[in-house]
Amino acid sequence: MAVLTQGVVPLEMTQAEVYREVQNNTLLNLSFWVNIALAGLSILLFVFMGRNVEDPRSQLIFVATLMVPLVSISSYTGLASGLTISFLEMPAGHALAGEEVLTMWGRYLTWALSTPMILLALGLLAGSNMTKIFTAITADIGMCVTGLAAALTISSHGLRWFWYFISCMFFLVVLYVLLVEWPKDAEVAGTSEIFNTLKILTVVMWLGYPIFWALGAEGIAVLDVAITSWAYSGLDIVAKYIFAFLLLNWVVNNESTVAQMASGLGAASSSSGAAPADD
Ligand code: RET
Hints:
Elements: E1 3-4, H1 15-24, H2 26-49, H3 56-80, E2 86-89, E3 100-103, H4 105-125, H5 130-152, H6 157-189, H7 192-215, H8 225-253, H9 255-260
Antiparallel strand pairs: 1-3, 2-3
Helix pairs in contact: 2-3, 2-8, 3-4, 3-8, 4-5, 5-6, 6-7, 7-8
The chain binds retinal.
The site of retinal has 18 residues, from helix 4, helix 5, helix 6, helix 7 and helix 8.
């Protein structure tokens, strides 16, 4: 059931009641279990693919990327069990004002753990330096946590959207690093081709999340909860498992390129094209 409108629904639902609601909504439940299955398969596949990787930088890319399905399987188990879902009463001004809306806040919480891993792997692939990787990751965590705040704020409709705006500002920082800074670094590192493929995939998929947030029950509510959940689950499949497979497959076949990258995480400058300078 997308939205509960009847007065019989208690304001505070127990975890068992939320679980029952999820069970009763087959489409919603399936959007969780398909991802649990895919995350499980991805974990097995990636461990197998990485069994002979020896270069430490390549290994770090592997560990970071492997964390993505590991966080995902935990995240979706939280949703499927009802642990990280709440029914929240929307404030005045919201399209569903006064109604209890199913809020999958566990998604936003766990994005704060999975998306930094994606960015770490991309930053390492681009041969970027600590400053840029730190900037992208902290802005990304800011984006997820303020997105969580937007979903959980039920005191004021205006403030929900103000949180959303703050989250978008953090997202702009991430997009800047991805689209402007790292492509230059990847050029120097000799990883441009794969980096640019993954950059486009990432930017296009990631743009979908704020769009579906805005269209879903938490935003202007033109999409049903199960449809919104499938939209996130579909984006996740490409942004996480397909992304990770493409990245790791490339790393396995180009380990020496990664190993030869100037300097690693501590490098002060990787965009000069020269050996790391003393700046
Ligand atoms: C929110 C809503 C507030 C505004 C913005 C958002 C962006 C979310 C993004 C999520 C990406 C998630 C991924 C998860 C994979 O595990 C929080 C939806 C900008 C970009 C890639």
